[in-house]
Specification:
Shape: globular
Oligomer: single chain
Helix content: 25-40%
Number of strands: 11
Radius of gyration: 17 Å
Number of domains: 1
Distance between the termini: 17 Å
Structural class: alpha/beta
CATH architecture: 3-Layer(aba) Sandwich
Strand content: 15-25%
């Protein structure tokens, strides 16, 4: 049975790394001693070791150890034998590219579907949809495919932002970009606001956190999804 938390962000204003999720993670990972961390998204281009250290420091506060998957000689074996898996934010294109290059995409999907607890934030949540066409990241590298894990039946737009009233910004809004996507694609898109997350327990997918989310479907008006609602 799938057991997943897919968060829009790892950090909210005024909070430390993953701190706002710690109470939820204590339940999500209650039988876990060690988390396997996949640092491939490299936020800001930082090294795998530096990224893993930041994650390790956060999980230490809830008494869970962290090992970066890049430190294993056989990453596929490490993945398949993990107690739990975490993939953090950064660049979604590079994350997906490395999962393809290291031949970890299919083993990751199988591991999650077999019930190993999974946590994703930002890019780590984006890859759980059907594809990564709704990420906000710059395409700094071209992965072999935009097709992702397809563990949930919709795409995520993490860090979703609403238009600011009175703003003089002339660029496109997130909603505009998603409407452009739906000219050519049918996949539903969930605009996931900061501080919100998706809980997946088996086939049950629900919205958690303080905020609503915005659900976009092709040729339909976007709707607000209340926290606690089943998706």
């Amino acid at each position: 049975m799938k057991k997943m938390i897919l968060a829009s962000t790892s950090t909210i204003h005024g909070s430390g790394y993953l701190e706002y999720l710690h109470p939820t993670l204590e339940g999500h990972l209650k039988e876990v001693e060690t988390v396997t961390f996949i640092p491939f998204a490299r936020p800001g281009g930082i090294s795998y070791d530096r990224y893993t250290d930041a994650v390790r420091n956060s999980f230490a506060k809830i008494n869970i150890k962290v090992i970066g998957i890049h430190t294993y000689k056989d990453m596929k074996d490490a993945l398949l034998n993990s107690e739990a898996i975490f993939i953090g934010g950064g660049n979604t294109f590079e994350l997906l590219n490395q999962l393809y290059q290291q031949q970890l995409l299919v083993p990751l999907k199988n591991t999650i579907e077999n019930g190993i607890p999974y946590l994703g934030t930002s890019a780590g949540s984006n890859i759980c949809g059907l594809n990564i066409k709704n990420t906000n990241d710059m395409p700094i590298i071209y992965p072999p495919s935009f097709e992702a894990l397809a563990i949930i039946p919709f795409n995520i737009n993490a860090h979703y932002l609403d238009p600011l009233k009175g703003s003089k910004h002339m660029g496109e809004t997130r909603e505009t970009r998603i409407k452009e996507f739906h000219v050519f694609n049918k996949t539903p898109v969930l605009g996931l606001r900061e501080g919100s997350w998706i809980s997946v327990e088996g086939d049950k997918i629900s919205l958690k956190g303080k905020h609503t989310a915005r659900l976009f479907n092709k040729n339909k008006e976007a709707v607000e999804v209340a926290s606690g609602a089943i998706l």
